[in-house]
Design a protein that fits this description.
Elements lengths: L2 H25 L4 H8 L7 H9 L12 H10 L3 H14 L2
Length: 96
């Protein structure tokens, strides 16, 4: 695999991670943009997340279930530990 193919594969995987995160949020009546901003308050609008929300995320009644641990594992795999922590907090709040 050459460098270009590796970069493209990483970007595809990263986009899948964004979709999993965004769909999980919608499935749990959470705003992905708000949760992202909570995890990364120093960052501006995440264009990839916005595009995913606009183009790919479906209403929760049309979506497949995404287990909590799956989305957390995917986020951590990409180094999004702050976002994974924000999800942990949302999950804890949901279970109370």
């Amino acid at each position: 695999m050459n460098e270009k193919q590796l970069t493209e594969a990483y970007e595809r995987d990263e986009n899948m991670m964004i979709l999993v995160f965004a769909q999980w949020c919608v499935n749990h009546d959470l705003d992905p943009m708000e949760l992202y901003a909570k995890a990364y308050p120093q960052q501006k609008l995440n264009e990839s997340l916005k595009k995913t929300m606009d183009d790919l995320v479906v209403p929760k009644h049309e979506a497949e279930h995404i287990p909590d641990q799956t989305v957390i594992a995917v986020l951590e795999m990409f180094g999004n530990t702050d976002l994974a922590q924000a999800l942990h907090e949302a999950i804890s709040g949901r279970k109370q």
